[in-house]
Amino acid sequence: MFLPLKDSIPKLTFPVVTFVLIALNVAVYFVASSNPLAAQDAAIFYGVIPYEVVNPGMQCVPSPDFARMVCGTPAEIQAMYPGLELPTTWLTVATSMFLHGGLLHLISNMLFLFVFGGALENALGRLSFSLFYLIGGVAAMLVQTLWDTNGMLPMVGASGAIASVLAGYLVLFPSSKILSLFIVFPVRVRAVWVIGTWIFFQFVSAYVAAGAGVSGGVAYWAHIGGFLTGAGLTYLLVDGDQISMFRREARVASGLMVEPLEPFQPEVNRYQPPPPPVVPADPFSVPQPQPQPQQPPPA
Fold it and tell me: What pTM was computed for the model?
């Protein structure tokens, strides 16, 4: 796989929303990771749990010996942990998108958002991009929940929302050149290869995990669900003519296409008086006789 570092699309305006999202994710991570217990509590209480989504009114917490997750009604949870207040399930759908399971998880997600978010934000506009990101994250969570309806482990991370950003970028700027690391070598490759290999790896990993009966771990179906949602939203928000324009700009920015030159126009000397106007002949005018030259008198 390629590790993207920078894209070739010029940014007409500063991508405010992209940098705000990065700052929020980083701030939440360091606040939640102030100590190991706080990080664990944040993931358990504010991560989204598929079983809770499928079974409204149920809540899941670690068993008293922390050996497994147990689920029950709020009354049963209170009997197990008196005074414990848990956030509502639908609140965790939003909060889970700003939590991460480790520093490497955070860095990789924010790097992808930094590289691909700015150009997509410029293309969609700030408000549309904000809604695009949130809808992609929620859809990713729902797809993973449908795949693992009995899952009791909390899901955290912005990967699903960022997967939707990757899909939107791929639709609009497939020819953009991405400065990437391949193993340890810097290379410039088209976005279609960088993003294409990433989503291909997600499908392969999901297939392998399903064949092995693995539940939990990396939420590959959240990545796939976010990606498909992002592609659909992009075609919904951007019309065909605009998509063609963005793709053309990507080819120009990547050096794959040269802008056509303007037709040559001779320079006009503005200090030279204009030629006299041409007066069209009147078809009904009577022709005047031309004066004859005078002949000298005979000697």
Answer: 0.81
